[in-house]
Q: What sequence folds into this?
């Protein structure tokens, strides 16, 4: 049984250490607030951000806000929050430039003229994705952590698992508090190293705990992605919306003897094609316009249909169809992982299946990340502004 630990006081505590949590912590630190980051992991970088491969939406000279807006709406089955999508379209590229490129220096790939290199992913009409080969998430996480440790006063608590949120009305010694409006004032936190439960008080609690991938047998998510942040939010009365919209990534390596890993959508963006066991490229039957670059939900459903019709447990991603692409140079991580299990992407197709990947719903928030519970905010995958609709 855990013993009573210390009491900590901060202006804000951030629960989670991915791109959303780290960015929030840095922004609040720059505003002069005292901030703590709490992570259940030993290493802060052990999060879904680290394993994101493909890239991030930016903008190039051939793009337009209207086209990006329509692509996002189409991908989300047109049930997205138009206000949230409009905000992302108008402010997203600026945020990428100011934060990831200028401030923390993510080394995005560039061409021979030192211009940003763009690739294409599912549901996008044009090439507007910037990347760091096939380890974009790892590069972003490394850059954010490096900047945070060198240039901020943020305190980091690893191996600290948040057990539950603290509210004024349920955890006060003052009986009058039960009659006042409920607000979140902190969290109970278990320190794995001391086996003690500490209390962290804060004026603002920011949940950045990611999705729910570990609820499923097969997922691309890390072991810590258990939906605990959303559960804690629900217990104190925060609204959860769009919980039925869970994205399955179409292409996860199928292998009976090793842990399944993601085959980035960018591989299809560079020309790889989905193929059934009969050697037939089938995506045009399901989406004649976008074919292999159909939105992820459409591609995943198409794969399930083909698996049923051909009575197989997987389909193939034919990476041999990528023309003028140096696979080892463009996708070094994916190539080496496939090679380690005996698959040569340059010579043979890769067996793939869909797996749980991203939670499109979450804790309902406004454009500032504020929930319906005073004192509680949510950012990243565990939050839902409606920007993704039914799919992203």
A:
């Amino acid at each position: 049984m855990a013993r009573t630990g210390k009491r900590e006081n901060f202006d804000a505590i951030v629960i989670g250490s991915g791109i959303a949590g780290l960015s929030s912590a840095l922004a609040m630190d720059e505003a002069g607030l005292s901030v703590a980051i709490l992570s259940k992991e030993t290493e802060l970088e052990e999060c879904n951000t680290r394993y994101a491969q493909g890239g991030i939406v930016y903008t190039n000279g051939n793009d337009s806000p209207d086209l990006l807006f329509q692509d996002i709406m189409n991908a989300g089955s047109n049930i997205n929050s138009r206000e949230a999508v409009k905000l992302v379209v108008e402010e997203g590229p600026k945020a990428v430039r100011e934060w990831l490129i200028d401030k923390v220096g993510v080394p995005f790939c560039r061409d021979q003229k030192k211009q940003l290199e763009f690739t294409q992913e599912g549901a996008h009409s044009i090439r507007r994705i910037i990347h760091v080969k096939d380890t974009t998430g790892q590069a972003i996480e490394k850059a954010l952590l490096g900047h945070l440790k060198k240039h901020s006063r943020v305190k980091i608590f690893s191996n600290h698992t948040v057990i539950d949120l603290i509210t004024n009305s349920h955890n006060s010694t003052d009986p009058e508090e039960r009659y006042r409006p409920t607000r979140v004032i902190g969290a109970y936190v278990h320190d794995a190293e001391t086996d003690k439960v500490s209390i962290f008080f804060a004026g603002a609690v920011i949940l950045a705990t990611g999705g729910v991938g570990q609820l499923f047998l097969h997922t691309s998510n890390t072991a810590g992605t258990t939906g605990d942040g959303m559960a804690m939010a629900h217990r104190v009365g925060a609204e959860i919306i769009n919980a039925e919209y869970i994205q399955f990534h179409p292409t996860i390596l199928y292998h009976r003897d090793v842990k399944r890993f993601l085959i980035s959508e960018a591989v299809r963006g560079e020309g790889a094609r989905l193929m059934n066991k009969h050697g037939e490229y089938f995506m045009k039957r399901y989406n004649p316009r976008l074919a292999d670059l159909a939105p992820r939900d459409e591609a995943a459903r198409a794969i399930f249909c083909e698996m049923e019709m051909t009575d197989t447990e997987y389909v193939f991603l034919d990476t041999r169809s990528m023309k003028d692409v140096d696979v080892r140079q463009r996708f070094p991580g994916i190539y080496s992982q496939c090679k380690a299990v005996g698959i040569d992407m340059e010579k043979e197709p890769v067996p793939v299946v869909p797996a749980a990947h991203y939670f499109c719903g979450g804790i309902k928030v406004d454009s500032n990340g504020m929930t319906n519970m005073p004192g509680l905010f949510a950012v990243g995958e565990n939050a839902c502004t409606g920007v993704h609709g039914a799919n992203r």
Remarks:
- Residues 272 and 321 are 5 Å apart (CA to CA).
- Residues 1-245+360-392 form a domain with the FAD/NAD(P)-binding domain fold (CATH 3.50.50.60).
